[in-house]
Amino acid sequence: MAKGSQLSQLKSALSQAGIKNPQHGKKRKRSGSIDQDKIKKAAKLQEIHQKLNPFDVKVTKLKHDVGGRKIKGTKGQPAQSKQAGIQRREKTLLKEFQEKGRAGGIVDRRFGENDPSMSLDERMLERFTKERQRAAKGNVFNLEDEEELTHYGQSLSKLDDFDNFGLPMDEDDDEDPGQIDRDIVGREHFGGFGDTNEEDRDPDRKKSKAEVMAEVIAKSKEHKARRQLEKEQEESIRHQLDQDFDSLRNLLFAPDAQLTGSNMVPLGGSDSLLPKYTSNADIDEQMDYDRQVRELAFDQRAKPKDRTKTEEELALEEKEALEKAERQRRRRMLGEDGEDEDEDEKNNGKRKRERGGDDLEDDFVQEEAWGGLGAGLGEVDANDGANEEDESEEEEDQDGSADDYDDTGDEDEDSGVENGESSGSGTGSDSGGEFDEITTSRKSAKLKPPGVQEELPFTFTCPESHEEFLEIVGEIDDTDVPTVVQRIRTLHHPSLAPENKLKLQNLTSVLVDHILYITSPPTPRFTLMSSLLPHLFALSRSYPIESAGFFVEKLSLMHKNLNRGISQGALEPGSRTWPGLAELSLLRTIGVVWSSSDMSHPVISPARLLMSAYLGLCRVRSLTDVTSGLFLSSIFLQYEELSKRLVPEAVNFSINAVLHLAPSSFKNVASLPGSFPSPDFRSDLCLPLAIDIKKSKKLNFHTPNLPRLLTDDRYTEQDKIDLLILALRLLDRFSEMYKSLDGFIELYEPVLDILTKLDITQLSKGVGTQVSSLQDKLTRLLKFARQARRPLLLQAHKPIPIPTYIPKFETHSSSYLRHRDPDHERNEASKLRYQYKQEKKGAIRELRKDAKFLASVEHKKQVEKDRAYKNRMNKAFSTLEGERAEQKAMDREKEKEKRRSGRK
């Protein structure tokens, strides 16, 4: 091909191919030769086009070219295939895209169907009218309305059976000529129309289609007639009931009629007569009926239910209810027993209801006396209205009011953890029993001295510090403190004011401080703490980040106190190393409020580390320290109940507590089995902690009073026995929790050795039973753990084969390059997998091309919309600019006129 530009290359290629401009000569070629020339010319042009544009053909270079082998897909035409794909999508996908979301072409043209102003009855009437009009138009060609038509002197209406018309089947027939046999017409032509006799038919033959349809039509008519008859009977019964109801209504609402001895007693204002009561039984029966009718007037009517209110609406209603109750309480304190005028009108509106036009006069209480039948049978007492008013006032005050203050003092010191463990036992101020307490307090209000507070206020300010909270609840009974907190939360709901969120966050810190305050010695109040936990839990769930900060702040302070106590001396009696009753209560509260099973928690993780530091670093100096450590171990048991994390400090302290309390044959630390630390064993401070066998022979164990042991330095042998049993039970619970660990054998073998060498034979039978049962359980668990343990093995590897370079030949096939599996099913499965993979790739490729095509279509539409919008805006701007230019020209002309007039 010649060099140069594409134009010169094209000219040279056309000249070489012999294609020149068509010259219109005088001579014309034949049509056949013309078609052949066109085909050849098109082929040459296509060849020239391909040579000029080499990018239209894509050739895949073969890695191993074998002569004579033909492989599909080595040459391709991407431009043509792309154009063909676009054209195919324009014919199929583009039409589907344009018709997407289009409704069907069926148009409902029924009369009145698309007219929303017409009711269903009007639509049916309009359709019936149109149908009758259409039928009337067709009656023009109806022959029945004209005079009777005849044929050969006979009426056509009597010739429906065509019995006497037609040709005979045989010319020699005895019947009249020109007549078809009746049986032939009846059986062959029209199926008989029921003219054939059933006796002439074969009972076993199959019925024809005409006979079956005749039976179906007959049954349908029969059912229709039966339904019509039932409908008429129901209508008649309904009509009879309506008439009876009218007579019953006249009987019920008739004026007074005296039951005399005459035959008929007239009713005033009516011509109807009542029958004579012949006996006392009839009179009693009629009076019972009148009494029941009279009682129906006082039955409670159904009320419509309100919609489900939002949280903000409920909070606002609760706040308004509390404020209203507080206003009423203040009015009662000032001696103003009456309610507000608007409330009186509201209550009067509830008690009375005006008679409406649609009333049946059986659902209201008449102001005048009942004068009809049954008078005096269901009268209401005159004091019922006052009682209902009192009950309504009590129901309004039920949610807001609380028990009157009863100065009974604090709880008993000896109540112990038993009161603290019964969570929620004192939270009865919000329950249904409050109503009885309120009524009792009202009845006994006159007997109380004037200096005692009678009612709990309904509104409180949100405290900003613990001191303000103490001022609020200073003179309030412990059972009413949860009610106070609930009312504070209700009055300061976050949806009522934006600053309430910060107030409730601060209330969380106040409750934490108050829990520390009420659980401090000498009079801890665990019942009040349990009743405050639900409110603290709810606030922590509402504001978790701020509440976590408050708890972590307290934990940091406790950690600082621990460091200060250890720095002063872990064995000094005056150093505060072990946590007190308030700190232990806070740690127990943290386990209740927050989730203790998380891998890492902003509150539980610091609390867990702090308790481990207490158990690992603090030294035992007295029975109080042992009590505090066992309490921490029980809290750890609560924390790790779900996650089952190993806490070796808790197990070590429990077994050390057993060594301190129970008599044993161990002399010093070196004689103890295992490797757990026991720095205080047989020390001077721990020797008095051992149980005296002589004093404890007859003592049996009880539940230890932990609050008293934590606050009082005086203890008895009974307390030692109780703590020993508590330590054994903790070891039992920890063994049940850690029995699935791999290191359970190393953890509890020393514990079993210590338990077997305890000298408990001289103690009570109950203590011996506890120790022996724990020994049996640990022996059994250790046995199972040893059986389940498997020795460590090296990781099993697949042997590495020796590499071979011998080529693999298949004897049954000459095409050794083709993959063939001797298993036919596996080979077919691999083929299917390969086909599925190829089809999946092809489907993904086509879907991407479809998405690209649709995106181009959407882009074109958007470009057209933008162009049209731009044209409209340019046209509008040009119009506005022209108007603005004209306006400015007019303004300039006006200015010129003004200047001219001024010069003149």
UniProtKB/TrEMBL annotation:
Q: List compositional bias (Low complexity) regions by residue number.
A: 1-18
**Any one annotated GO CC term:** small-subunit processome
Q: Where is the composition biased (Basic and acidic residues)?
A: 179-190, 202-212, 227-241, 294-326, 860-869, 881-898
Membrane-spanning residues? none
Q: Which Pfam families match?
A: Nop14
Instruction: Cite the entry's keywords alphabetically.
Output: Nucleus, Ribosome biogenesis, rRNA processing
InterPro entries xref list:
Nop14
Does the keyword section mention Nucleus?
Answer: yes
> Which residue ranges does the record annotate as region Disordered?
1-41, 66-89, 162-241, 259-279, 294-436, 860-904
Q: Which GO terms describe its biological process?
A: maturation of SSU-rRNA
Q: Where is the composition biased (Acidic residues)?
A: 169-178, 336-345, 386-416
Q: Which domain of life is it from?
A: Eukaryota
Q: Where in the cell is it found?
A: Nucleus, Nucleolus
What is known about what this protein does? Involved in nucleolar processing of pre-18S ribosomal RNA. Has a role in the nuclear export of 40S pre-ribosomal subunit to the cytoplasm.
UniProt record similarity statement: Belongs to the NOP14 family.
Name recorded for this polypeptide: Nop14-like protein
